[in-house]
């Protein structure tokens, strides 16, 4: 049986599944139930200075799919709205009762060294395993000079990280905002400031939808709204890319990463880990489906690892990173073409419409005497774009088949068609 235990920048946990700082971790009642369900760790809902934040009603909205499945989730909630002392006391109690689980305390304070120097010893006294600096909240707090207002300025990220390293012995995880052009800049700044790890992503600026009668966006607070933070399944691709960017950046190579964003299954987690994450954090999936999703996550991950012969997470951590490269290094001579399984095809014609209207007109449609259509790929014209495979409603009906071109690897920097090529093709 695979060993799921981790040592993430010095923080030990029985498995890599942590709950992210958010409502699931905002009080002892929740955290204890999460630990009972099997979560390996939590990042406690962000603490700040007293008086605690005050929240509005309503505060969440969602981007639904056609069958009302939640594709993306949006919130305008602030940091904890409970007293600092109460949170600290509960953290102390829970850590004492659950010594084998990771408890990381998320913090958000003004950019003043004294504020950080004052709170850090109090957090340390709880017995918590580490701190996470919330430089990511995109709503409300930035208007007060905190959250993503800090995360968007690498100099501030570095400065506050350095203060924290000076004023605590606990591992410092810097949580990054995705609301920035190049995620490597704040990650490098955190690294320079001495961070033990980074975590990402926090939520993305968003407006999910509008009430067109009232002309107000959701979540509505009376007759007005404000942009919120987007998360859930829809943000996973953005998060995966940002994690990979940091993992393959020579300046941050080796910096531990806690992957967050749209994780709802063992497979999502495995993907983050393969792209360099040392643990993962979950919020929306737990909010929508409850704490027990962790059972399937642990089970699935450990079964898949057994199947692959991976004994510990280290065996595949970062294994996909070398395979993420710049476009210019992709093989110009690699070629796939679509192949349709006539046995599986339900003759819906979606692939034909997609290819005919918006791709390379590479699917033949022939109709027999009885009026029944058959769809086949024109191998000479197909460019292997994947569009038909993506459109097809029958999984596995269209496969993309690699072709033997007989040509060696040649990237764009070597391609004779590139007027600015750097090296001659071999
Ligand atoms: C309602 C809500 C409240 C959140 N509050 C916090 C917070 O206090 N501190 C923080 O660092 N992140 C907060 N987050 C962001 C999550 O920790 C996480 O980074 C984000 O939701 C992406 O993960 P997910 O796609 O699994 O939800 C919040 C998210 C939601 C949905
Ligand atoms: S892979 Fe692209 S070009 Fe080829 S048949 Fe499908 S849609 Fe057309
Ligand atoms: S989309 Fe798939 S099922 Fe529909 S016609 Fe094309 S191959 Fe057949």
From TrEMBL:
Q: Specify the 4Fe-4S ferredoxin-type domain's residue ranges.
A: 336-365, 373-403
- Gene Ontology terms, MF aspect: dihydropyrimidine dehydrogenase (NAD+) activity; iron-sulfur cluster binding; metal ion binding
**Assigned EC number:** 1.3.1.1
Give me the reactions it catalyses. 5,6-dihydrouracil + NAD(+) = uracil + NADH + H(+); 5,6-dihydrothymine + NAD(+) = thymine + NADH + H(+)
- The answer on whether this UniProt entry bears the keyword rRNA processing reads no
Q: Which UniProt keywords apply?
A: Iron, Iron-sulfur, Metal-binding, Oxidoreductase
Q: Which domain of life is it from?
A: Bacteria
Instruction: Give the GO cellular component terms, alphabetically.
Output: cytoplasm
Q: What does this protein do?
A: Involved in pyrimidine base degradation. Catalyzes physiologically the reduction of uracil to 5,6-dihydrouracil (DHU) by using NADH as a specific cosubstrate. It also catalyzes the reverse reaction and the reduction of thymine to 5,6-dihydrothymine (DHT).
The UniProt family comment states: Belongs to the dihydropyrimidine dehydrogenase family.
PANTHER family membership: DIHYDROPYRIMIDINE DEHYDROGENASE [NADP(+)]
- Describe its assembly: Heterotetramer of 2 PreA and 2 PreT subunits.
UniProt-recorded name of the protein: dihydrouracil dehydrogenase (NAD(+))
Q: Which organism is it from?
A: Pseudoduganella ginsengisoli
The record's gene field reads preA
């Amino acid at each position: 049986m695979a060993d799921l235990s981790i040592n993430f920048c010095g923080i030990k946990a029985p498995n890599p599944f942590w709950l992210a700082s958010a409502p699931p971790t905002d009080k002892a009642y929740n955290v204890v139930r999460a630990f009972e369900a099997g979560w390996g760790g939590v990042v406690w809902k962000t603490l700040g200075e007293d008086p605690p934040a005050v929240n509005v009603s309503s505060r969440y909205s969602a981007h639904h799919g056609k069958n009302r499945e939640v594709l993306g989730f949006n919130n305008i909630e602030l940091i904890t709205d409970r007293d600092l002392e109460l949170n600290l006391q509960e953290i102390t109690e829970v850590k004492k009762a659950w010594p084998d689980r990771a408890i990381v305390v998320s913090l958000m304070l003004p950019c003043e060294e004294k504020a950080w120097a004052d709170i850090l010893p109090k957090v340390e006294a709880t017995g918590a395993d580490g701190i996470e600096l919330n430089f990511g909240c995109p709503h409300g707090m930035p208007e007060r000079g905190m959250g993503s207002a800090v995360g968007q300025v690498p100099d501030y990220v570095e400065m506050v990280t350095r203060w924290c390293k000076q004023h605590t012995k606990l591992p410092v995880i810097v949580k990054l905002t995705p609301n920035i052009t190049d995620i490597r800049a704040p990650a490098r700044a955190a690294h320079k400031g001495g961070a033990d790890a980074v975590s990402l992503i926090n939520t993305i600026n968003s407006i999910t939808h509008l009430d067109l009668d009232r002309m107000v966006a959701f979540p509505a607070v009376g007759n007005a709204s404000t942009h919120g933070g987007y998360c859930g399944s829809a943000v996973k691709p953005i998060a995966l890319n940002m994690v990979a960017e940091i993992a393959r950046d020579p300046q941050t190579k080796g910096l531990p990463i806690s992957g967050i964003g749209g994780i709802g299954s063992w497979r999502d987690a495995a993907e983050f880990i393969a792209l360099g994450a040392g643990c993962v954090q979950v919020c929306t999936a737990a909010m929508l489906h409850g704490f027990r999703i962790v059972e399937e996550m642990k089970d699935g991950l450990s079964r898949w690892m057994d199947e692959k012969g991976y004994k510990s997470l280290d065996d595949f951590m970062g294994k996909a990173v070398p395979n993420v490269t710049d476009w210019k290094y992709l093989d110009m001579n690699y070629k796939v073409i679509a192949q349709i399984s006539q046995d599986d095809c339900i003759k819906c014609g979606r692939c034909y419409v997609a290819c005919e209207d918006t791709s390379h007109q590479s699917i033949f449609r022939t109709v027999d005497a009885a009026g029944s259509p058959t769809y086949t790929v024109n191998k000479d014209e197909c460019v292997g774009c994947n569009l038909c495979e993506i459109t097809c409603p029958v999984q596995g009906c269209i496969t993309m088949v690699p072709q033997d071109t007989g040509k060696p690897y040649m990237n764009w920097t070597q391609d004779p068609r590139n007027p600015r090529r750097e090296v001659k093709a071999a």
